[in-house]
Amino acid sequence: MKFKRNLLSVALASAAMMVAVPAFAQDSSTDTAKDKETAKTADTTNVGKVKVTGIRRAIEASIDAKQTNTSIVEAISAEDIGKLPDASIADSIARLPGLTAQRERGRAAQVNIRGFNGDFGATTLNGREQASTGDNRGVEFDQYPSELLSSVVVYKTPNASLVGQGLSGTVDLQTVRPLSFKERVVSLNARYDQNKIRSQKESGNRISATYIDQFANNTFGVMVALSHMDSPQPGYQNEVWGFTGGPNNTTVLGGGKLYKFDNNHKRDGVAATLQFKPNDVWESTLDWFYSKFDKTEIKTGMEFGTIWGTGVLQPGYTVNSAGTITKASWTNVHPVIRMDSNPIEDELNSIGFNNKFKLTPEWTLNTDLSMSKVKRKFRVLETYVGVGSNGGATTMNMELDPSGKFYNYVLGAQFNNPTDLVLTDAGGWGQDGYLKDFGVNDDLKSIRINAIRTLNWGPFTGIDFGVNLTDRTKEKTSLESKLCITDCTGGMFGVTAPFPGTIQDFNFGGIGQLGVYDANEILDSGVYNLVRKYDKDIAAKNWSVDEKLTTFYVKADIDTDLGSMPLRGNVGVQHVRITQGSDAYSTYDGNPAGSPIREEVKYSETLPALNLSLEFMPETYARFGAARQMARPRMDQLKAGMDVNACVTACPTFTDTNTGQTISGPYWQAGGGNTALKPWMANAYDLSVEKYFSTKNGNRGYIGAAWFYKDLLSYIYNRDVAFDFAGLPLPTLPQGTPTPTGTIGKINQPVNGEGGTIRGVELTASLPLDLLWSPLNGFGLVGTYSDTSSSIQPNGPGTSEPLSGLSKYVSNLTAYYERGGFSIRWSRRTRSAFRGETRGFGADYQTISIAPEVVQDAQINYSFNSGSLKGLSLYLQVSNIGDEPFAAYNDTDSANRPEKYFEYGRTTLAGFSYKF
User: Fold this and answer.
1) Half-sphere exposure of 414 (CA within 13 A, CB side)
2) Which residues constitute the signal peptide according to the record (predicted)?
């Protein structure tokens, strides 16, 4: 409750900078308004006689765009060419009302909209749907260099022409249009990048350049933007394996991890646009966006099993009020020194070709072709070292830190004698190391044809109708091998090899020094034999999902008066025909590699949408949105394939709650995906009230309040259902074992359920402080606050786990001052505890309870507006000022069982931009 009151105290001053530049490909019926808005934000905004630049320009352009948009949207804009206000585009998006970001590897990557994780939202680039680098649909926004983007608009309410929309919202990333500029623009940006954590510092750089020009009497435009990033990210990891039952009805941790990691992010990006408009009849635009992102992670540290290993709990332990052992001593613990390497190579390639033909004064024909392709290579390399003396065993004392966020450990052994260290199976895990090679390929192609006609039919001023065809194939592969010094049959310390490294300071988790070496060099040296591993879990990570969507739509624009009050908006409907299929593997005992299987299904959905904006008082608007929204199922839930076994003795009688069918043992049973899944569906309603105003100095501001409600018609969760195993490969049971007499059994798989709601209130204010006192001209506050509640049960009826991505309370506050070329900005982003998805053991996804976060950043700029240095800007930016850790817990009670604790440090960017 204290946390909630603190958020409420800043609700009217919490922050986010916003501007909406509508998508060219999404709503062609308003091209003229979009071109004017883009041109307006492309150069200095003029409000009366006041020339506004930098932060204030972005804020005021956002206010103008939000005021004129018929949908309920939130957005951000670059302060200038190549200068979005944050190092990461996800950080910028996370300041918008009702939105926040989940950090991964110390950086904001996934965006949560209105309490849903990234898989429930859609992402487009210049109006075109994007492929994703992850296992599912959620886009990782750090793949998109912020320097290459001019703006981002988030559609909270869809319209019928918004193809590829999400259930939570749609994020449209925008690059500039060269013919929106009146003259050539060249912009250069360079920043020094330093990450500091504790006493450790690492440095990198970020460089970008943009060239915009017009030729042939402003009928042909060119934009080329380049970006390069080399950014370090050192950090520390303190984690437990998990918790399980201990003696005397207690709960005890199963083991622990202590790591130092050294991450580095290298990204090169290109954005290019060719725009040709020889006359008023034809306009052609070709877009290309390319990003290559290499992420390296070198981990040095140690793991040790306690009750899930060889450890023996000693008497005299301490138990808290929840029954969790918080302080204990252990004997016979076998620590495993780890040298790991986890590189990720991501490549994104997106191309779009748009042509508009003005056939008559009333008719326009639009065609759009696009392709978005992603390739990811991800390696997880583990190598193990043990202490040779005493058979590798030692003592260990553990105690919960007073902060309640992690455990502290003291081990009895030393790890600073290279002659006492050996390469070996130090933990009795059946291998001397492990290697996983993952691959993700996502290929998405679209073609869109639509016609727009201006109308004068009562309240309707235009109609837009057409069809969009999307063909998408996403596949994941996983190859896994044990690393064996011989053949991995020797057991714990059964086979050893000399330690190949040196001793370095560790100074973390109670360990002073530790042996280190390069895991990649050891793998390449030939020390290990690679023994390919076949397992049902590995087979389940190899799949392909293909989708073909045909979307027919019609949308009518509304511009009329309700009495003396202007009323604008749109109404329309989409009809989506869907064919989805999957290739994967089915496994059973004796067939761990699996047998190929193919499944396919067809169905359709209809999605109506209405948006209305009523100006019931001067510059005061009431907005209403009503729509049926859809989120396609997760890719890994759509995969075909299953793991089959038989229940032969003591089989519980099973009744399918949907069909009423009852099954008694013995019977076949399985677990797997479900290619026949239908989407998450919801009836959504939005209402907002917004008041816009100008101060005597010409500064623009607004305040707004919004309410939303989503009533789920269908959602997805796992449960047991009756299943016919006829025609599938089945295991041969041992002789004498009872065998199922029929083919009807049960399978645990994702299925569609019904029911549940999510609702929320969002407050927003953009306040130039000269509204209160004229001498405060240049000072301002921008802020947001949201309170979201959900009755959705994502794990099925009767379960209590909250929806992934949902923080009940989210607030943002930005304070700024800008005048005479000098500007300063401070921002604070806060979210309450939530369930989130992250990579866990072996890089597989898992859902965890993430602790509340407060992330702060600040920026100081000075721009030369006259003289020989005109066009030059100097700036300093600091991110994660308070070194906010990433903490997660085994359950929602953070005082009981902390599970993950990561420190990432503070990042400082210092540099300049020059525009001429």
Assistant:
1) 9
2) 1-25
- Counting Cα atoms < 13 Å in the Cβ hemisphere of 107 gives 21
CB 79 within 8 A of CB 594: no
DSSP3 helix / strand / coil % (the chain, rounded to 5): 10, 60, 30
Q: Which domains does the chain have, with CATH numbers?
A: 2-733+740-915 (2.40.170.20)
Tokens for 669? 């049973």
Pick the closest to residue 628 from 582, 581, 666, 685 (CA basis).
685
- From the CB of residue 241, how many other CB atoms can be counted at a distance below 10 Å? 19
Residue 270, beta-bridge partner list: 226, 290
- Overall average pLDDT of the 515-542 stretch: 95
| Cβ proximity of 23 and 126 under 8 Å | yes
Report the C-alpha gap between 143 and 294 in whole angstroms: 10
- Residue-wise DSSP of 402-435: TTSS-EEEEESS----GGGEEEE-TT-SSSSEEE
Cβ neighbors of 114 (< 8 A, separation 6 or more) are 98, 99, 156, 168, 169, 708, 710, 758, 760, 786, 788
In whole angstroms, what is the distance from residue 731 CA to residue 728 CA? 10
Any residues with CB less than 8 A from the CB of 181 and at least 6 apart, and which? 39, 42, 43, 212, 214, 221
Q: What are phi and psi of 178, to 5 degrees?
A: -65, -30
pLDDT in tens, 371-417: 999 999 999 999 999 998 888 999 999 999 998 899 999 999 999 99
DSSP line for 299-334: EEEEEEESTTTT-EEPS--EE-TTSBEEEEEEEEE-
Query: What is the 8-class DSSP label of residue 126?
Result: T
The answer to whether the bond into 633 is cis (omega within 30° of 0) is no
Closest to 284 (Cα-Cα) out of 293, 270, 274: 274
What does the alpha-carbon distance between residue 11 and residue 34 come to, in Å, rounded to a whole number? 32
Q: Give the pTM.
A: 0.91
CA distance 135 to 175: 26
Can you tell me which residue has the tokens 């039952």? 245
Residues 295, 356: contact at Cβ < 8 Å? no
Strands 845-850 and 886-889: antiparallel
d(CA 244, CA 254): 6
Distance CA 606, CA 679 (A): 12
Q: Which of 790, 609, 813, 785 is nearest to 704 (CA)?
A: 785
∠ CA 516-905-15, rounded to 5°? 155
CA geometry: angle at 168 spanning 705 and 271, to 5°? 105
Confidence tier at 612 by pLDDT (50, 70, 90): very high
d(CA 36, CA 523): 58
477's enclosing H/E stretch is strand 460-484
Distance CA 259, CA 787 (A): 36
What single letter denotes the amino acid at residue 303? Answer: E
What amino acid occupies position 684?
A
The CA distance from 94 to 77, in Å, is 13
Residues β-bridged to residue 764: 704, 784
Phi, psi angles (nearest 5°) of residue 75? -160, 170
Beta carbons within 8 Å of 736's beta carbon, 6+ residues apart: none
Phi, psi of 115 (to 5 degrees): 85, 5
d(CA 68, CA 217): 31
The string of pLDDT tens digits covering residues 805-836 is: 999 999 999 999 999 899 999 999 999 999 98
Rg (CA), the chain: 29
